[in-house]
Specification:
29% strand, 7 strands, 21% helix, alpha+beta, four-stranded antiparallel β-sheet, 4 helices
């Protein structure tokens, strides 16, 4: 509540563009918008906008905890692929997410997994064959539902 926009924001018009810009600059901590992007039985993926910053979060309904997507790091469960980056968790279509993994990111994946690629899907192993020039790929993934 303390970070909500004051009632006057909606009732009193700004005199000009400069007055509005000054308000936004001086009140960057005020909450501007919450937007729900995606929801499963267990998780909610949402964006929070303040006047001076923006963040993407995932909320676990079971544990009642939220996580900043920017702070989630790739691990072996995702084959060290960077599925969550600042402001980009991929595009969702019918419950599946799609994310372009660049050659630069794949080079990092290769370095982290030298000699340990047996557990990876065939397509990922193929793209990592040439570690100096890996082929970019599109990763398809889902968020757990339970």
């Amino acid at each position: 509540m303390e970070n909500s926009l004051p009632k006057s924001f909606f009732e009193t018009a700004f005199k000009n563009k400069t007055e509005r810009e000054n308000f936004e600059r001086n009140n960057g901590w005020l909450l501007r918008q919450i937007h729900l992007s995606y929801e499963t039985d267990r998780y909610m993926l949402f964006n929070i906008s303040f006047f001076s910053n923006y963040g993407q979060y995932i909320y676990d309904k079971k544990t009642m905890a939220s996580y900043n997507l920017e702070k989630i790091k790739p691990d072996s469960a995702s084959y060290f692929l960077p599925l969550y980056e600042r402001y980009n968790a991929g595009r969702e279509h019918e419950g599946k997410f799609y994310k372009i993994i660049t050659a630069e990111h794949l080079k990092k994946v290769y370095e982290q997994n030298k000699g340990k690629t047996d557990h990876m899907p065939k397509e990922l192993r193929e793209s990592l064959k040439d570690s100096t020039n890996p082929k970019p790929l599109i990763a398809e993934y889902t968020i757990k539902t339970k």
